[in-house]
Amino acid sequence: MEDQSFSKSMTYAPGLPEGATFYSAHKKRVTSEAVERAAEKALAERGVQIDDIAEIVFDLQKPFMSGLTKALCVENVKAVLAKRELQHAILVGIELDRFAEKKMLSEPLQSLVDQDEGLFGVDETIALGAVSSFGSIAATTFGYLDKVKPKIIGKVDLAKGGRVNTFLDDLIASIAADASSRLAHRVRDDEEKRAAQSHRK
Amino acid sequence: MEDQSFSKSMTYAPGLPEGATFYSAHKKRVTSEAVERAAEKALAERGVQIDDIAEIVFDLQKPFMSGLTKALCVENVKAVLAKRELQHAILVGIELDRFAEKKMLSEPLQSLVDQDEGLFGVDETIALGAVSSFGSIAATTFGYLDKVKPKIIGKVDLAKGGRVNTFLDDLIASIAADASSRLAHRVRDDEEKRAAQSHRK
Amino acid sequence: MEDQSFSKSMTYAPGLPEGATFYSAHKKRVTSEAVERAAEKALAERGVQIDDIAEIVFDLQKPFMSGLTKALCVENVKAVLAKRELQHAILVGIELDRFAEKKMLSEPLQSLVDQDEGLFGVDETIALGAVSSFGSIAATTFGYLDKVKPKIIGKVDLAKGGRVNTFLDDLIASIAADASSRLAHRVRDDEEKRAAQSHRK
Amino acid sequence: MEDQSFSKSMTYAPGLPEGATFYSAHKKRVTSEAVERAAEKALAERGVQIDDIAEIVFDLQKPFMSGLTKALCVENVKAVLAKRELQHAILVGIELDRFAEKKMLSEPLQSLVDQDEGLFGVDETIALGAVSSFGSIAATTFGYLDKVKPKIIGKVDLAKGGRVNTFLDDLIASIAADASSRLAHRVRDDEEKRAAQSHRK
C-alpha cells in the first residue's frame, strides 16, 4: 500500500494534539468503502438481506404515503447503510454476537450476551447511538420496533441452534428506523417542492 | 426569605467561574420541593393523574411479574416524579402546550406545535432526555409507548376543543417508561436478595 | 393560500391513524423554507451571526487540517442550519429565552430559566437532541464547548441588562459541534477520493 | 447451583412473550454482585483505580464546593459503579480493547479499534449510553473530559507498547462524569435540607 501518496496535510483526528497525523506509514488505512462492504457482508452472513429491512420500512410508512413502493424503501435502507456511524455499530454488534456464539467472551459477559439478559442494555445503547443520527423521531420508531419485533427482527431474535443474535435484532431495528425517518423527511421535501411548483402555475 | 442563612460555601453551579455562588441575595431560591409540587400540579391541571400512568406501567410489566400490584406501580411512578430532570422536562413541556393553546407562540413555532407536526421532534427530544436517566431500556419502552399511545397517552393525544397536548403525551410516555424501568431493576434486585437468602438456608 | 393544490395522497405524519392527513384545509401550512428563515432570523435578533459560529468551528478543526479556510466553516454552519431538527430546537430555545426575559413564564420555571440554574438541564437536552443528528462525536464536541464556552458562546452566556440566554448558549454550542462534525466527515471523504485517484495513476 | 430455589414467579425479561422465564435450569445465573466485581476487576487489570477517577471528580467540583473532600468523591465513584448499565458498558468496552490488543477482531474492525480511528464513534456511544443515566449535565461533562483528557484519562489514552485503550478512556470519562453529576445533585439536596432546618429555628 502506497501511504506515501498521503501528505501530512490530509489528516484529521479529533482529540489528538496539534500536528498529530491520522494517516501514517505504520498504519493500515481503512477506507470507507472497505467498511461499507464489511458491514453489508456481515449482515448477509447473519441472514439479513436489505430487502428484509425494506419490508419493515414499507409497513411503517405505508399508512401515511399512498403510492409508496418497495423500491423507494430499498433505496432508503441503502442510503442509511452508507453512514459511517451505522456501519461501525453493525461491525461491533455482530462481532460480539459471533464471539458469544463461540463462547469466547469472558464471564460474566458471556452469559449476559448469550442469554440476551433483559436488563443488559448495551445492545440497545449501540443501536440507539446509530439511530440518533436521524433525529428523535427515528429513536422513537426504534423503540417501537425493538418491542414489537416485526418480521426479520423477530426471526433473528428467536433463532435457535446455538445462534446468538443479541445485538443483531437491535441493529436491524436501528437500520429500519433510520431508513424510515430518512424516507419521511425526503417525502416531505418532495411534497413542498411540488406544492411550490403548483403555486407558481 | 432569609437567604442570609446560606453561606457562600453551600453553593454549586457547573460551568460558572471559581467563586461563583448559586444562592445569593438577589436570587429567588427555587427549592426541589417547590419544583416537585409544581410538576405534579401541572400534570393534574392537564388531566393526568398518577393512577393513569401507573396503569400503563402495570400493563407493561404484568406479563413478566406474577403478583404485580397496582400499588407497586404507583410507588414507582411517584419515585421517578421525584427526579429533578423529569420535573424540569414536565414544567417546560406543559408551559409550551399552554402557550400554544393561547396562541401566544411566535410563528412558525405556533403552527408547528398546535398542529402536532409529525416531523417536529422537540417534544420527543425533551421527553427522551428525561427518560435517558433510566437507561437505554427505558428509552426503548418510551419509543414503544409513543407509537402505540395506550390509555391516558392516547386520550390526551386526541383531546379536542382547542386543547394542545403536543408535549404532554410524550411526557406521560416518558414517566411511564421511567417507572417501568425502575420497577424492573428493583424487582431484579429483590429476586437476587431472596435467592441469596434461600441459598444460605 | 391554495391548499386545494394538495391531494390527500401527499401526506405523512408518524403516529397518526391510517388515513390521517397532514395537509388540510383548516391547517396553516408551515414550509421548511419558512422554518429555516425564522431560525436564522431568531439567531440574528439575539446577536448571533453565522460568522461567529464559523469561527468556533475554525478553531476546533484548525489543528487537524492544514489549509482550512473560514469560508469552508461558514459553508458547513449553513449546511447544518438547513436541518429541520436543529431549526426546531433553535425556535423553541429562543422562544423560551424571550418569555423568560419578559417574565412571562410561570413560577418556578421562570426562576429556573432566568437564573440559568446549574442543574436545570432542559437547555442541554434540547441542544443535545439536535446535536445527536451528527453522531456521538458531535455530542462529545458539544459537551466540550458547553463547558469551555469560547467566543460568542461565552459572550451570550455573560450577557447583562436583563438578557436571558439560558438556551441560546447551548444552541450555539450545538450548531458549532454539528458543523464541526460534518466538516470532519466531509474532509475524510475528500481525502479518500484523492487517495483513490492517486493510486490509480 | 440450586436454581430450583427460584420459582417461575420471580422472573422478569422485557420483550419476551407472556410466561417467559428469566431464571431457568439451563441458564447460568448472573448475579449483580458478580457483574459488579467483574467490572471493578476489569478496571483494575487495565490500571485504573477508583482513586484515579475520584481525583478527576474532585478537580471538576472543587471550584464550586468549599470543603469538598477526596473521600466524598471516592464515595460517589463507588456509588455510580454500582449501576448495572455502567457495569455492562465497562465489561463490553474493556473486552473489545483486549480482543484488539490480541489482534483477534476481524478486519476492518481490528484496524478501526487498534488505531483509535477519529471517526469511529462506537466507543463514545457506549460511554455516552452509560452516562445518560445521570442526566444531560453528565453528558456535557463527559464531552468535556473526553476532549481534555485530564490525568488518568490522558494516561491510558497515550499508553504504549501494544496497549489498546480505545474504549477505556471513554469509559473513565463516563464514570467521572456520572460521579460528578451525582455528587452535585446530592450536595444540592443537602443544602436544601440544611436551609430548611435553619429556617425552622
TrEMBL record, chains A, B, C, D:
CDD domains tied to this protein = PgpA (cd06971)
Origin: domain of life: Bacteria
One GO MF annotation is: phosphatidylglycerophosphatase activity
Q: Which Pfam families match?
A: PgpA
Question: GO:BP terms for this protein?
Answer: lipid metabolic process
Instruction: Please list the residue ranges annotated as the YutG/PgpA domain.
Output: 72-184
Could you tell me what this protein is called? Phosphatidylglycerophosphatase A
The organism encoding this protein is: Sporolactobacillus terrae
